[in-house]
Design goal:
Number of helices: 5
Low-confidence stretches: none
Radius of gyration: 20 Å
Structural class: alpha+beta
Strand content: 5-15%
Number of strands: 4
Distance between the termini: 24 Å
Order of helices and strands: HEHEEHHEH
Helix content: 40-55%
Largest sheet: 2 strands, antiparallel
Length: 137
């Protein structure tokens, strides 16, 4: 799991032993960090975090977070036909094929699934943060 700037922001909070904090980004060192979570394309000027977001809420280290996907009832049964119709149009397939291909995806999006990070993900997160802490002491 790649972290923003290979863990720079997370390392800053680990180094200062800070969590559960919110603050404005404008005029702060973190606000001046180049935004790297989305590539806008070659024609765009590099944006900083404060160009994209007004503020930041740092709840806790991502390694300690529970991963959750899905929202129960987000697609009620009465919208299922429209979901499949749009999938068929977007993917240039028949409605019957869309029903078969996307039935599981529709079930998954409609139920809350929670999981902890896998050991390999935790190792990757820890390595990214450690690299910043070790090279910027």
């Amino acid at each position: 799991m790649p972290l923003s700037h290979n863990g720079l922001l997370d390392a800053a909070f680990v180094a200062t032993q800070t969590d559960n904090i919110g603050f404005d980004l404008k005029g702060t060192p973190l606000g001046k960090v180049a935004f790297d979570l989305y590539q806008f394309g070659p024609g765009y000027v590099q944006a900083n975090y404060s160009d994209i977001f007004d503020g930041m809420i740092y709840y806790k280290n991502v390694a300690d977070m529970e991963m959750a996907t899905g929202i129960p009832g987000i697609f009620p049964p009465e919208l299922a036909d429209e979901y499949y119709r749009r999938k068929a149009l977007l993917n240039n397939i028949s409605l019957d094929s869309a029903r078969k291909k996307y039935a599981e995806a529709l079930r998954e999006v409609n139920q809350l699934l929670r999981r902890r990070h896998e050991p390999t993900e935790l190792q990757a997160i820890g390595n990214q943060i450690s690299n910043w802490l070790e090279t910027h002491r």
